[in-house]
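Students often ask why we bother encoding 3D structure as a string. The short answer is that it lets us treat folding as translation between two languages. Here is a chain of 225 residues written in the first language.
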Amino acid sequence: MGAGVTAMMALQAPPELLGFHTNFPGTIPPDIAKALQSNDPPSSSLSADERRAYEQLLVLFARRRAYASMMGTRPQTLYSLTDSPVSLAAWMLDHGDGYGQPAAVIMSAVIGHTVNGHPADDLTRDDIIDNITLYWLTNTAISAARFYWDTHFNLYNAANVAIPAAVSVFPGENYRAPRSWTERAYQKLIYFHEAEKGGHFAAWEQPQLFSEELRAGFRPIRKAT
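And here it is in the second language, the structure alphabet:
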């Protein structure tokens, strides 16, 4: 949910905020969002990167966002998540990424071997169990789900951010934001880089690589100040 928090900070743009970094950028242009809503085929005018992103988004919205729709419209119906640790585990493991559903890297960690060519890397089975256990012991599955109910903005649509922005695109994100869309959404784009690996949970999956992206993203601001 950090992406939502930082996005709102960037939109509010208090004078103390020199810039921000995100690995979950909101870049979808209005015309693209309209076409996606109608489930239209990709336009012939799209570049290769834009077409790839469009096709990923079609799959995402059609097949992989059921959990988000449920949490955004009927979160209290999910009380079984607080009644059964198996129910909670099944719900959390079924979240997807750009590679598929469930998320390939997480399932690689759970199963203990590479799934669909995507190894667990820094994640372990204990990491996954610890994450689920945190929600179970604190009884926060439903309160966490209600964030989707309380959120009244779309994280995917073009952000229209005016402060300096650094964007890292990970290959296993829900969709790989094209640079062309990113430049339109972030008017002062100071950094854009496509990482070599990592998915929707990039900071968890690739902590070293993620920290390197943060440092690289904010380096232009450090030099300027």
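Translate back mentally: The beta strands are 20-22, 161-169, 186-194. Keep this in mind for the problem set.
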